[in-house]
Amino acid sequence: MRRLSKCCLVPRGGGLPPEAVAPLARRQPAASLSATPGTHWTYRSGKVIVEAVNRAPQRWSGRDDGPGPEHLRWHHVVGAGGAADVAFLGFRSDEGVRRNKGRQGAADGPRAIREALASMALAAPVAAADAGDVEVTDGAMEAGQERLGRAVTDLLDDGRFVVVFGGGHEIAYGSYLGIAESARVRSGAKLGVLNLDAHFDLRADETPSSGTPFRQMADRERQRGEHLHYAVLGISQPSNTKALFDTADELGVDYLLDDHCGPANLAAVDEFVDRFLTGCDVVYLTIDLDVLPAAVAPGVSAPAAYGVPLETIQYVCERVAASGKLALCDVAELNPGLDIDNRTARTAARLVHRIVTAQRTHQ
Question: Is residue 260 marked as binding?
């Protein structure tokens, strides 16, 4: 038996083992990642070329119990480009958290999620590609969000299910820009944004931050003559001022308080999710890990004193993934420097694992 005692990421160049290539063969046009010294990585999908990713994808590695599909793990199936059903993209930023006076460190979240996901076992093959990271440097958050949006649009229009690893919750506005400009939404599909979060993030601050993305989305939709179909599950009353509740009401935001999200409230959760899904054609799901109890997710910028049980969050994620409407998902606020025993990273990776496998099963 071969074993790596610790999951790690090593320089790009590998990917799928030979024995797994055949069952994962696809009929899609190939894509590629290329770079020259001193330039951004360029993702090529069909005829679309977007220079947005400025941190190269890395080869995934982890525990290896031997050849064959019965030993399949995520690091076996993630390549750097090529035909794939799902594309992973990182957003290395905590500038929005800094501006929102939170605990910094979320910029290292994408690395930690990849490492936690790499050795998780797969019950069935999945064709996946890692498109690298969009990295915010010198405080240029808005430019980073624009680049993230262009990369997400490119991947979505190439037919990929896209999962973005954050990063602070400023990731949400960049992800939104990407799906809002996708061909499907621009052609008339109704977009729905579901946020699993303890906070509304509807602040009307002049300076954008991790606390403003959904207000920015609502303002942009209004400018286009549209209404943002936005719902939040897990809202903590003590963590949101009355002004924020008033803003949510003014904008027509549907929300469910964390007090009403326990296992005994499953009927209310189902009703909430059904109502959201009925109102849209395509879904962007964003998960702020601070929606979970601090004991489950200690490594976040603002740990939850109460939180929504992981059981409920996973249930909602799987229901949305199984709806056939989910096109884009991101995971925000993982702060590895504040994590305990990699609890938060492992939880984030488990949610990603369950979302992707459920989404592929019901596609």
Answer: no
